């Protein structure tokens, strides 16, 4: 799994499958490592005949961390209230350009792009600003950032943004808090605590932290632009759960309504996660969209 300097930052990535097939690029969400796209999801795409690339966004995983003048959410809010952005700030368009730089480095002209949560906004930017590079767009549990959309459940946002125990000093407390959050966002689907614990431990071993402050700032800078959605002409699939506590279902419906000729896959009981049992359903919808 190589590390390359692209756009003056280090991008860590992994390639699965044969290079003689169409490429699927997977874009992760806020504070998430590339491993948020599970091995099983990646392998199912490989089995369907695709080369799969996943990568760590800047400020997460093993990619570069960008020093930000704001050191906590409170300081970031102070900057924004003054109509300013802290030094070191970037937009989601910069992450989109990181992804394109990776495709350029790998000599991939076009790819199918999947994005989850914040990654779905990055996919919107790639499809609208660089249409010649996007074979199709699959936008999962995401938002357009339209300001009048329903907001996340306050208790879930509190869990997401509150300080975590130090994993090295209090690993059990960290795991318990993380598992509580995973349960809270999983909708009606049960979670495998043992498997989730293994994933958390592996992620903390490969990269102990993420700079979600930088990525939150990037989302704020990016903001909402309906023209961004209206000019997307790539085949587009919007996947959203009925029980998403972070981006309620209306967020996915809003994206689908704004993108011309898009397909909306509404999944009953799905929250803000992709349970393994839904891999096949999502991938089949992606295949059907592209076949049409």
Set out the fold topology:
Elements: E1 3-6, E2 9-16, E3 23-27, H1 39-47, E4 51-55, H2 73-81, H3 92-105, E5 111-116, H4 118-129, E6 134-140, H5 154-161, H6 171-184, H7 193-206, H8 212-222, H9 226-230, E7 236-241, H10 249-258, E8 263-267, H11 279-291
Parallel strand pairs: 3-4, 3-5, 5-6, 6-7, 7-8
Antiparallel strand pairs: 1-2, 2-4
Helix pairs in contact: 3-4
Domain AB hydrolase-1: 23-274
Keywords: Hydrolase
Pfam family, one: Abhydrolase_1
- At the fold tier of CATH, the topology name is Rossmann fold
The CATH architecture is 3-Layer(aba) Sandwich
Oligomer: single chain
CA distance, first residue to last residue: 34 Å
User: How big is the Rg?
Assistant: 18 Å
Structural class: alpha/beta
How many helical stretches?
11
GO biological process, one term: glycerolipid catabolic process
Protein name: Alpha/beta hydrolase
Keywords: Hydrolase
Pfam family, one: Abhydrolase_1
Folded structure, characterized:
There is one protein chain. With 292 residues, the chain is α/β, with parallel strands linked by helices. The chain has one domain (3-151, 209-291): Alpha/Beta hydrolase fold, catalytic domain (Rossmann fold). The chain is built from 11 helices and 8 strands. Helix 3 (92-105) crosses helix 4. The longest helix is centred in the middle third of the chain and has 14 residues, at 92-105. The two termini are 34 Å apart.
């Amino acid at each position: 799994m190589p590390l390359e300097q692209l756009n003056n930052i280090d991008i860590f990535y992994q390639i699965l499958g044969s290079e003689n097939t169409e490429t699927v690029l997977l874009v992760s969400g806020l504070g998430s490592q590339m491993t948020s796209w599970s091995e099983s999801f990646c392998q199912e795409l490989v089995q369907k005949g695709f080369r799969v690339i996943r990568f760590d966004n800047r400020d997460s995983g093993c990619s570069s961390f960008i020093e930000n003048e704001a050191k906590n959410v409170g300081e970031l809010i102070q900057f924004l209230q003054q109509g300013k952005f802290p030094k070191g700030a970037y937009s989601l368009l910069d992450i989109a350009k990181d992804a394109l730089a990776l495709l350029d480095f790998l000599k991939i002209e076009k790819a199918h792009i999947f994005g989850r949560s914040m990654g779905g906004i990055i996919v919107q930017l790639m499809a609208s600003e660089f249409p010649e590079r996007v074979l199709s767009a699959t936008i999962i549990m995401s938002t357009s950032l339209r300001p009048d959309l329903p907001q996340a459940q306050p208790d879930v946002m509190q869990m997401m943004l509150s300080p975590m125990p130090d994993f090295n000093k209090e690993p059990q407390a960290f795991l318990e808090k993380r598992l509580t959050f995973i349960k809270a966002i999983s909708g009606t689907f049960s979670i495998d605590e043992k498997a989730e614990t293994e994933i958390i431990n592996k992620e903390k071993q490969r990269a102990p932290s993420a700079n979600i402050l930088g990525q939150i700032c990037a989302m704020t800078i990016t903001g909402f632009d309906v023209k961004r959605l209206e000019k997307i002409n790539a085949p587009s699939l919007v996947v959203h759960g009925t029980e998403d506590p972070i981006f309620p279902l209306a967020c996915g419906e809003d994206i689908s309504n704004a993108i011309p000729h898009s397909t909306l896959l509404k999944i009953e009981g799905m929250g803000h996660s992709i349970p393994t049992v839904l891999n096949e359903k999502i991938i089949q919808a992606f295949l059907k969209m592209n076949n049409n």
